[in-house]
Amino acid sequence: LAKTTQPISxxxxxxxxxxxxxxHNNIATNDYITxxxxxxxxxxxxxxxxxxxxxxxxxxxxxxxxxxKSSTLSLPRVSLSxxxxxxxxxxxxxxxxASKIIxxxxxxLSIRP
Amino acid sequence: xxxxxxxxxxxxLKTGQSMTLLCAQDMNHEYMYWYxxxxxMGLRLIHYSVGExxxxxxxxxxxxxxxxxxxxxxxxxxxxxxxxxxxxxFCASWGGENTEAFFGQGTRLTVV
Lengths: 113, 112
What we know:
The complex is a heterodimer.
Chain A: E1 9-13, E2 18-23, E3 32-38, E4 45-50, E5 53-56, E6 61-64, E7 70-75, E8 84-91, E9 107-112
Parallel strand pairs in A: 1-9
Antiparallel strand pairs in A: 2-7, 3-4, 3-8, 5-6, 6-7, 8-9
Chain B: E1 4-7, E2 10-13, E3 19-25, E4 31-37, E5 43-49, E6 56-57, E7 65-67, E8 73-78, E9 87-94, E10 101-103, E11 107-111
Parallel strand pairs in B: 2-11
Antiparallel strand pairs in B: 1-3, 3-8, 4-5, 4-9, 5-6, 7-8, 9-10, 9-11
């Protein structure tokens, strides 16, 4: 299983763009990269998933370089409600060896007014 | 569409008591998971299941047992609760490749 490394915490201000980078040096060929958001006292919530290049949805963008050894979650124009813990997961390819969903320690993002 | 439902939401146990946490999903997902989350920490995988009738150990399986007799339900059992098992427990289900996993709202368990 690919291990992920993220910054423990980040701070930013309302209206700024926030980029959180995740390293996954031993990502497997079939692995997807998925990001989850967790608010206090709630279960994690899916944000975005990608395999290569760039993926964008109404909430965020995910940038994945050609070697796929890292990925960057980009949150445009953050607000106070984006204060949460963000987890980068690698795997979820559907193969039995990758069916464990293992969370790292995540990045605690704090947004200030 | 309920998604993933955990029962109960809160529970206080005395040391040595037993209990079962129920996770139910209505999305016909093959994969189901149980996690624990201690204050200020990330989620740690306890046990998981890749289909009805199957279970497997995760990162921290000791002190817990699980069963998946029906596809839609995944039960987590504590045979003899210990204070170290005080935590918030989350259940998740996943439909497979290129899909997202869905999480329940959590069960806050306190063992005194």
